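User: Can you predict the 3D structure for this chain?
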Amino acid sequence: MEVLDTGDRMDPVIGDRTFKTKSSEELYHLTLLVEWAKAARLLRVASGRLLPVKKNAKLVDRPNELRSALFAALARIGPAVTVSGWLESLFSHEYDRGLRVLLHRLYTATASVPLSDLYEVVWQAVSPLYVLDDLSPDRVGHLRTANDHDTQRVLKALASLGAVHLTEDSAELTTDGRTETARMRGEPEPGDAVLQILVELADVDAPRVWRQLLVPAAIRLDRLHSVIQDAMGWQNCHMHAFTIDGVQYGRPGGELGFRDERTATLAALLKPGAQCVYTYDFRDSSEHLITMEQFHTAAAGLHYPHCVDDTGACPPEDCGGAPGYSDLKVILADPAHEEHHAMLEWLRLRSATEFAPDRFALDEANARLLSLTAP
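Assistant: Here is the predicted structure, written as structure tokens:
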């Protein structure tokens, strides 16, 4: 502890009592350091002894690579970093989920984030997974306090890497922390290959509805599904599938026999100039033609996926696909139509002037894409 300057204390004295340290597990910082080094493959255990992993010993002299290895290992040290004492936090049981939303909140912020906001976002991510209605307010309060303490511990671990600038009341990702978080999110680094694709809603005109997107070349189809949903403006409340060279990819299991979209990447299946179909909502059969346009290289300072151009607003959910959307536009354009007021009520519009099929906010689409959590 002295050599490593962990800050732990042997046999701590509290008041007039001395508490004998019986195990290294009681030394939080030392235990965290060892478990973190093991998770990053810097140390290994053999015959009850800690030994260096020789092939990774070179990282000691390469601080940037060492930081990357430790940052990547952060997801694997939940039990060591979240130690809540007599009352375990919900974060400690849902560490992966809590860590992802914590980093996501920091990554999407344009300024330092109040710690109270970070505590809240972690709590809101993990608490809905548990039934807390039967607990007393005091018990829930204790759980929230434990959750906040563990969130603080994770932030301190990030700060020790130089990934977060941490003050008494706020936190902000550093440049290095932003780079590592982008890598964890699967975003391409500057110079990596990205694909320019065109996603167009089939059989829809006046106006056409399409989005031109830049996505990582290694993007999986399940991730591409989420990107299309946010870029187009859908609400992701129906089933979907990709059809590529006659083969359908979607969520595995069930009776439809889809190939697992999580195991397929876009660039491996299609070359520039090729096309495939993305179908959303099998009842309405909203088909999107995806065209692979060309490769680019990722630029510094730009987040991926990214929408670079667009036309037309997304149709309302459950409007009947392309034919239903065409009928809807006719009905709303004619105040005398017998279904005009019914459609306004269905869309929760006060007037047909609020319905603007040619209006689409590119900035809002990119804000949604930025808000996509890590896969």
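The mean pLDDT is 91. The first helix runs from residue 28 to 39.
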